[in-house]
Amino acid sequence: xxxxxxxxxxxxxxxxxxxxxxxxxxxxxxxxxxxxxxxxxxxxxxxxxxxxxxxxxxxxxxxxxxxxxxxxxxxxxxxxxxxxxxxxxxxxxxxxxxxxxxxxxxxxxxxxxxxxxxxxxxxxxxxx
Length: 128
Known about the structure:
The protein is α+β, with helices and mostly antiparallel strands and 128 residues long. A 5-stranded mixed sheet has the order 1-2-3-4-5. Strand 4 and strand 5 form a beta hairpin. The longest helix has 29 residues. The radius of gyration is 16 Å and the shape is globular. It starts with a helix and ends with a strand.
């Protein structure tokens, strides 16, 4: 018999795998567009940025969201104002640690929605 704890662990593991696969797909997608990936899973304080990249001299902070269903909304729905605030603070840490605070930057999102077993990838530039 499954317990709530087992179900939660299983769902969390499935979400982690979905996220990892999505991030790998996002990296390949960006590289195919000629965008150079600088770092993955950058952490600062309690925040994390999935991908830090460079596109024509501009630092790009990329949030990756993957979904297998619309049960919890679209991937874009997961980028809430609170998430936006965390990403901005983490990005400031990245720029500060490297001494490049004045460098142009933007925030993008890559969303991956599996439909009929096939991933639909969208690159949203300047999401906030």
